């Protein structure tokens, strides 16, 4: 899942809010999480730029989960306050599963009564009751009155094993927990592990990823995180953690080279986007910041550069 593809579900947010997961939600994320995306869902409809981004590049996995949430009878615009998607490596690590987590003020009694009225029967995994979400093939279970977990059967089972202490969970992953603590005060944030970071950076670098320097340093990219909001324009910040100053500086040079290439060969919109981006490194951390008006961002969504990044 590329960075921009992940941002497809990044929606309009209020600057004073924070998208934080409760302990039940964190415990239902398996240890080997590759990417975690958390958003303040309450303000989702407030930004044309955010909705345009979502419509263009929403990954199929997230679209399927969103549709399942709607088809199961939840009013996602009112019931859901925080929405998260966790992509984790399953089994030997060759496959990736995705589960969704929703937090909000749910009327659980009414929801269960509606399931019963429709003769929707649950299946059980230990003490967890799983209900089908319409015809989507997805299942949903309540972790507590304000937190629910949903996803496909083969994705939700390992998540419940983690939550029920039959397997290690996200809170045992010290690197990802540390990364989360630096961004979870923001209304929209995501964290990626080493493999996810390497994949993301290859997408961002484009042709520059073919340079020998990238092959040298890619295995030294440890983790990354980003924040994004659409309040008064579009603002995006990316942080990549490396073990030393040299690696961060090399990645900064590669990204600047990629930016200069786009500035020379790109469209006027792409050149403007490059001018609105700053790339720096310090003390082993690569930092990338981007800011644009809503109209500038809408133009960028239609550019060849954007389309090449989200493939």
UniProtKB/TrEMBL annotation:
Domain of life assignment? Bacteria
Q: Tell me the first and last residues of the signal peptide.
A: 1-18
Which UniProt key words apply to this protein? Answer: Signal
- The protein, known as: Uncharacterized protein
Q: Which organism is it from?
A: Paracidobacterium acidisoli
Organism lineage? Bacteria, Pseudomonadati, Acidobacteriota, Terriglobia, Terriglobales
């Amino acid at each position: 899942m590329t960075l921009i593809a992940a941002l497809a579900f990044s929606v309009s947010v209020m600057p004073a809010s924070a998208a934080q997961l409760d302990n039940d939600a964190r415990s239902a994320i398996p240890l080997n999480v590759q990417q975690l995306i958390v958003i303040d869902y309450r303000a989702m409809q407030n930004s044309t730029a955010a909705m345009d981004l979502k419509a263009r590049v929403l990954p199929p996995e997230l679209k399927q989960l969103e549709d399942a949430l709607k088809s199961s009878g939840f009013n996602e615009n009112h019931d859901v306050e925080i929405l998260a998607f966790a992509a984790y490596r399953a089994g030997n690590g060759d496959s990736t599963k995705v589960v969704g987590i929703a937090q909000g003020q749910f009327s659980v009694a009414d929801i269960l009564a509606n399931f019963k009225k429709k003769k929707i029967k649950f299946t059980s995994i230990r003490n967890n009751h799983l209900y089908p979400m319409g015809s989507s093939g997805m299942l949903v279970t309540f972790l507590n009155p304000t937190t629910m977990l949903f996803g496909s059967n083969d994705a939700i089972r390992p998540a419940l094993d983690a939550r029920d202490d039959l397997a290690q969970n996200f809170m045992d992953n010290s690197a990802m927990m540390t990364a989360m603590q630096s961004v979870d005060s923001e209304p929209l944030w995501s964290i990626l592990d080493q493999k996810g970071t390497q994949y993301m950076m290859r997408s961002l670098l484009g042709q520059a990823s073919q340079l020998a320097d990238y092959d040298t340093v890619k295995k030294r990219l440890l983790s990354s995180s980003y924040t994004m909001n659409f309040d008064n324009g579009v603002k995006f910040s990316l942080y990549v953690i490396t073990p030393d100053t040299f690696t961060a500086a090399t990645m900064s040079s590669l990204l600047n080279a990629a930016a200069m290439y786009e500035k020379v060969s790109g469209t006027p919109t792409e050149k403007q986007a490059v001018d609105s981006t700053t790339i720096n490194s310090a003390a082993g951390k690569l930092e990338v910041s981007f800011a644009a008006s809503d109209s500038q961002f809408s133009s960028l969504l239609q550019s060849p550069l954007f389309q090449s990044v989200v493939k």
